Structure prediction request, 656 residues.
Amino acid sequence: MSQFDHIIHHPPASFVEQANVAGMDAYHALCKHAEDDYAGFWATQANRLLSWKKPFSQTLNDSRAPFFSWFEDGTLNASYNCLDRHVEQGLGDKTAIIFEADGGEVSRATYAQLLSRTCQIANAMKHLGIQKGDRVIIYISMSIEGVAAMQACARIGATHSVVFGGFSAQSLRDRIEDTGAKMIITADHQVRGGKQLPLKSIVDEALTLGGCDSIEHVLVVKRSGAEVAMQAGRDLWMTEVADGQATTCEPEWVGAEHPLFLLYTSGSTGKPKGVQHSTGGYLMHAALTTEWTFDLKPHDVFWCTADIGWVTGHTYISYGPLALGGTQIVFEGVPTFPDAGRFWKMIQDHKVSIFYTAPTAIRSLIKAAEGTAAVHPDRYDLSSLRLLGSVGEPINPAAWEWYYQHVGGARCPIVDTFWQTETGGHMITPLPGATPMVPGSCTLPFPGIQAAIVDETGKDVPNGQAGILVVKKPWPSMIRTIWGDPERYQKSYYPEDFQGKYYLAGDGAIRDAQTGYFTITGRIDDVLNVSGHRMGTMEIESALVSCTELVAEAAVVGRPDDTTGEAICAFVVLKRARPTGEEAKQIAKILRDHVGKEIGPIAKPRDIRFGDNLPKTRSGKIMRRLLRSVAKGEAITQDISTLENPAILDQLADNH
Ligand code: WT7
Prediction:
């Protein structure tokens, strides 16, 4: 018997009937097509979903493995595919974006309007010297202008790199330097949860930190209208440079491999890496997964709650739904303002039919609903919903069931989508009109994706046994390289352990003995997942030790947390005596603020524990395994015979 037998939910017949992929036979047929003719399968999708200026003749080029190319000699433009072609087909008056501001004001952009604005911004960028291949940083909050700015970059062949508005000046500076961007598109402020937070002044600060000489212009969108400093010659208001521009702009036809964007994400070592995505393969998978996983139809109102600063916002806001001509919500605010019923109210008001959010949000809204009846989803009319999605971290079965019952009214399939910044789009996920669902399992690979579980030597492990998640064949939307560091790309994703043959996801996983369903067990490297945000432990450690006047040494680990998935726990040795009581609290606050300044508030450690030392082997290696146990508050059962200083464990365990 399978461990899953008693908790399988079948897609409702009414959903299956109308689904883009209807029934498991249809799913298996697609998988079989990919198995029998891998290149043919992807070529079919790329030709069906995208409009090519020049058709491609070769689907996959693996002669430079692990640097793969897809649809290489084809040319296209991502913004043409997301905007113009819908307008040309008579959908100009269809709503592309329903924008709801933090304070509740609603505005809309039709496809024709979004295209015009994209062209104006594109023309403004060209006027300021931006050319094909240049990099442009976008540091802005959720807005129609933000999406249009991304589209405008794509239109002229500039490569965008969106930096999440929660990152600090230092993090922004690092990304400016690494990309060598010529331009930053930002706003005066961002508004979240009723608060006005700076953007432009953080850009100003980043530009004083050195290494940013590549920046020629800063385009500033007016959001708050409050006074901000503008440096003559460098800084320009978006309205002043874009509003007078022509509303048409010939798209720059680029090769399919042309880098559409760079997006920085954390790894287990060093600085965040600039994940480079292509135009053709990426856009194809964005469109395909929006069609098959989200079952998007012309009348749907789609809402992905992610920020455009993360890959989820790229693929399932700025590209996927637009490539298919869908209508979607773009939301500026936070789920708890003005109260924790905000998501439910917005679903009700806008008649959202497909809703995609993160487990951490669901868990915090469960807590809120249990505390205050008025914000319980049962109090809202959510009957417009027909499909729910989850992304970013494993969803625990209890949260899954609540989401299913109370948000989806036990009538909406839930797609638990496993993927990563590097994969560009969904990798393992149910297809909502086909796959029977098991809470807590992301079920089966998306058609064409050769996901597998192997041991350290790269050998397949049998179902029922935990191992390392890999992808055995390249796929169109995969990362192409790490910007400026191909060696790191190769080492991180195609390591020697598997003879450089398999893509290493960095997650552990297990397949159910009976169903073959995948369950992700979490990262196997030093990467944490805090509220669905990916953080490298080394990055946080570097930030802590960069507080040179105080910190001698630091080690960071994760511990499980009911709401945020994982919480950041830092063990710190100071350059002065180990503080206790009030003093410890004060220093912990200084260190938290320091990390906030170095990386951003999302990286601030939840726990900071001070020790005279850290648990180390005789050769001086910090034993993180033990620190993870201490952080969790569990008894140490591991072998500590190689430990130089066993007494330190008691000190760290007591000290919090
Ligand atoms: C890591 C990737 C993919 C967009 C958001 C995060 C974890 C992601 C799931 C899921 C279990 C998941 C993995 C992965 N993850 N989705 N459905 N079930 N774990 O992108 O920041 O690149 O993080 O998020 O650990 O490796 P990211």
User: Anything to note?
Assistant: The two ends are 44 Å apart (CA to CA). Residues 265, 311-312, 391-394, 416-421, 442, 505-507, 520, 523, 529, 534 surround WT7 (CB under 6 Å).
